[in-house]
Design goal:
Elements (H helix, E strand, L loop, with lengths): L40 E5 L4 H12 L3 E6 L4 H13 L4 E5 L5 H15 L4 E4 L15 H22 L8 E5 L3 H4 L5 H21 L5 E5 L15 H5 L17 H8 L10 E2 L10
Parallel strand pairs: 1-2, 1-4, 2-3, 4-5, 5-6, 6-7
Keywords: Oxidoreductase
Organism: Fibrisoma limi BUZ 3
EC number: 1.1.1.100
Length: 284
């Protein structure tokens, strides 16, 4: 999946996938669903584009209905996700809104259950990434907004979801390679991703007695709208070339990890993190 990425930049977060050149690869044509998630219902935050969109489409190909959460600015991307999921013969619920709002976090769960009658898989994936090359450039507003979006929302959505989850159900949190390595120009983002990793481990222990599994995925450089909306056009052109595989990954190369963690194949896996990162060793 070698991809040549030209310089490009988007001025507003979150980025818009429809404007990316080239377009991310969302699912391999050769990926064959085998009913691993047949009859399941999944709620995916940040499900309109990138990794979240790929997870939605892979889940649908495996037999699940999905609800996705996104901001109103991302409506074009969300509609593409809708088309892709429906092309797999599954249902999808679109839920636009702001995950920094506690009431909306609770509403996303209730609307999902109201539509589908149940909830089996929660994917906490939504994220904000702001670049600050010098730490003193960071504003308090940046700090609060990043933490509210990236980690507070996970606590709130998960708490609302728990009354609907039962034995055999699954929670999957998107962390990042930056949780293990840090990144000088992404101090808030890296810190939230470290918090997500710790949250995943703590929650897995808390819910083990209920037989609800909690795991994480820590992607490396994956080609999504988050990147050109966060860094300069010059940096985008070099994106992913610093990992051992010398290229960025595609959402299609990450989403199968979520399928595995959501399915019975991972019935003895909880409190763990999968690392699709192009070969970077993190020992975590």
């Amino acid at each position: 999946m070698e991809t040549q990425i030209p310089p490009q930049h988007q001025d507003v977060q979150p980025g818009i996938q429809a404007e990316l050149v080239p377009q991310p690869k969302i699912i391999r044509p050769s990926y064959r669903g085998t009913g691993k998630l047949k009859g399941k219902v999944a709620l995916i935050t940040g499900g309109d584009s990138g990794i979240g969109q790929a997870v939605a489409v892979h889940f649908a190909r495996e037999g699940a209905d999905v609800a996705i959460v996104y901001t109103e600015r991302e409506e074009v991307d969300a509609q593409q996700t809708k088309e892709l999921v429906e092309a797999e013969g599954r249902q999808i619920l679109l839920i636009p809104g702001d995950l920094r709002d506690q009431a909306f976090c609770e509403e996303t769960v209730e609307r999902t259950v109201g539509k589908f009658g149940k909830l089996n898989i929660l994917v906490n994936n939504a994220a904000l990434q702001l670049q600050h090359k010098y730490f003193e450039e960071m504003q308090d507003e940046d700090l609060v907004k990043t933490f509210e979006t990236n980690i507070y929302s996970m606590f709130r959505v998960t708490k609302a979801a728990l009354k609907h989850l039962h034995e055999g159900d699954s929670i999957i949190n998107t962390t990042s390679v930056t949780a293990y390595q840090g990144r000088a120009d992404l101090p808030e983002y890296s810190s939230t991703k470290g918090a997500i990793m710790a949250f995943t481990r703590a929650l897995s222990d808390n819910l083990a007695q209920k037989k609800i599994r909690v795991n994480g995925v820590a992607p490396g450089p994956i080609w999504t709208p988050l990147n050109p909306a966060s860094v300069s056009a010059k940096e985008v052109a070099m994106f992913g070339k610093d990992v051992p595989m010398k290229r960025p990954g595609q959402p299609a190369e990450v989403a199968p990890a979520y399928v595995y963690l959501a399915s019975e194949d991972a019935s003895y896996v909880t409190g763990q993190v999968v690392h699709p990162n192009g070969g970077t060793i993190v020992n975590g």
